[in-house]
Amino acid sequence: MQLTDIKNDWISQFNHPLVIAGPCSAESETQMLETAARMKEAGAAVPVFRAGIWKPRTKPNGFEGVGSMGLGWLRKVKQEFGYKTATEVANMHHVQAALEADVDVLWIGARTTVNPFAVQEIANALQGTDRIVLVKNPVNPDLALWIGALERLAGADIHNLGAIHRGFSTYRKTNYRNIPNWQIALDFKNQLPNIPLIIDPSHICGNRTGLSSVAQEALNLGYQGVMIETHCNPDEAWSDARQQITPETLASLLSGLVVRNEECAGFDEELERYRTLISDVDYQVIDLLSQRMKLSEKIGMLKSDNNLTVFQPDRWKAVTEYAKRKAEETGMSQEFIESIFKTIHEQSVVVQNDIMKSK
């Protein structure tokens, strides 16, 4: 079965947007049942309750989930509150245990998506299943790897598929835990418009403050679902405490989201899409400028240590000539590029002068 041939009618059984919520990790039966009950009481429109049973961690000796014992708690949540249930699987043993526990939705995590052998093992274990299977984007920004994982599942005759955008890792310190890099997700959406796309603002933000903003941006771009980590006592959570919210906060967040009708998408939605992409690029530009100024500080230290003048005419000439060449190559205005580089250079001079003064 080709990935592009899949209709993915499964998403229509849920209200738009599909909301998947619950704790990052199952910790106890009490924690699971309290979280589920309070989501109901708060009026959060959540049809699918999620909980991590097995937790892949970056370093050893950390909490890696309660294991199969937690599947019984997940089943009890389903029986008592009527939620469909969801959990992450990383190998065939996880799949078998989750299927036996009647888990409705399985997702493949970012660390597993990067491993084609692991994805193929999961696909083989799920051969022909009618379960909903979601694939998170890989840790690194690799669109082909993301699509490849879904192709392996489609090749195993799994036809209820979806994708989760959880952001991409970066070695640089940013305001995000994982940078959104919206363009990659939109490229995915353009190539595979038949695959429902769900946003995971919890892992993108890594904290509670930006969740609604990221979720709203995703809905503006035509995403069909939201996955948000929700815990009855977030501050005491055994994993990812900073990014989890209470059931009551979840209900408030969901009520504040503006849902876009993709079938009636027009000028406003297209404009919003481009604005989101521009914001994403602007963020990257600012981050790069910050890195450039840090390099200027290092140069300023070297010049100060070696008693050199801040302004080096030959270097400025080389920079301007480079800017002109790049302007020609990209078809941009030379005047525009030169003005930008002049501003950057002026700020670099200020940075280096401040270093000279401080010594």
Automatic annotation (TrEMBL):
PROSITE patterns: CHORISMATE_MUT_2. It is an enzyme of class 5 (isomerase). The keyword Transferase applies. Keywords: Transferase. Residues 265-356 form the Chorismate mutase domain. GO terms for molecular function: chorismate mutase activity; transferase activity. This is chorismate mutase. It comes from Marnyiella aurantia. One of its GO terms (biological process) is chorismate metabolic process. The keyword tRNA processing does not apply. PANTHER family: PHOSPHO-2-DEHYDRO-3-DEOXYHEPTONATE ALDOLASE, PROTEIN AROA(G). Its EC number is 5.4.99.5.
